[in-house]
Amino acid sequence: MSDLIHFEDLAPGQEYDLGALTVTKDDIIEFAEEFDPQPFHLDEAAGKASILGGLAASGWHTASLVMRLLATGFLNKTAGRGSPGINELQWKRPVFPGDTLTAKAEVLETKAMRSKPDLGIASVRVTATNQHGVEVLKWENPILFARREAAP
Amino acid sequence: MSDLIHFEDLAPGQEYDLGALTVTKDDIIEFAEEFDPQPFHLDEAAGKASILGGLAASGWHTASLVMRLLATGFLNKTAGRGSPGINELQWKRPVFPGDTLTAKAEVLETKAMRSKPDLGIASVRVTATNQHGVEVLKWENPILFARREAAP
Predict the structure, then answer these.
(1) Where are the domains of chain A?
(2) Cβ–Cβ of B38/A80 closer than 8 Å?
(3) CB neighbours of residue A76 within 10 Å
(4) pTM here?
């Protein structure tokens, strides 16, 4: 019997704490240089002049950091099989250098897959909150999980 | 008169070519180690055994790469002011080492913002296609743009 969390172990309402991480200014600039070179993600003055109010992380950076928490804090303890996408990704507030993000995952819904009897799909809401208790990021996505036993 | 593309210059139906890039195996593994350490993004054998069919890029990696094309090929030629999120992000097919992704952005809709007379919002669809002509990624997001002149 595998210790990994399988589809049958998931139920709506379950919450998983994903842990926390702190974002540095160097990380923000390095990610932006590689993936999102818009001025307000690269430069303090440009950030301050923008509606973000200061040098702020690329939303894709924040999402990728939270993905790390989701992988290490949840998915790698499961028989997760990947995801086809994200239904809604909200960058609710800017993420600034020194911010500490705490993330959680909530199971919203589970359903069997007709086309693949060895898999099920769970709809998962992922949220990240900063050190002031303010939600900075939210997404919902369907994630595939292996079943312990194939559906009849 | 600024050469940058402003809100007033955008109209539904406009398409912008964002250029192309090639994804390497080292890039895929490096991104996954930092942000998405699930086995099928880290290891050839695990990738082959997965429904992805081979070592494949994290969806967040693919999205971040396409974000680079969107920033360099479009946003940095505009008076873009950031985005509050993504309405729908679809990882339609796996991205494998050596794949070349070509991206484009299409303006779907534009509207003034009541709350901010110096900004407007455009709904933009971003798609990326691999060297076989197969769409691998799609997203839609609202993007803020400065207006040349504030709304009355």
Answers:
(1) 7-146
(2) yes
(3) 13
(4) 0.96
CATH class assigned to A7-146: alpha beta
Walk across the sheet containing B85-86 and list its strands.
A15-22, A100-112, A119-129, A135-146, A88-91, B85-86
Q: How far out from the chain centre does Cα A123 lie?
A: 13
Instruction: Give the residue among A79, A85, A96 at the shortest CA–CA distance from A124.
Output: A85
Q: What is the ipTM of this complex?
A: 0.96
Distances (CA, A) of B100 to B33, B67, B95, B128, B140: 22, 15, 9, 10, 21
| pLDDT one digit per residue (tens) for chain B, 152 residues | 579 999 999 999 999 999 999 999 999 999 999 999 999 999 999 999 999 999 999 999 999 999 999 999 999 999 999 999 999 999 999 999 999 999 999 999 999 998 899 999 999 999 999 999 999 999 999 999 999 988 77
Residues of B in contact with A75 (CB under 8 A): 38
> Residue for token digits 């743009």?
B145
How many Å apart are CA B65 and CA B28, to the nearest integer? 11
The answer to whether B90 contacts chain A (CB < 8 Å) is: yes
**Cα B117 to chain centroid, rounded:** 27
From the list B35, B68, B144, the residue facing A65 with the nearest CB is: B35
Token pair 């080492």 is at which residue? B97
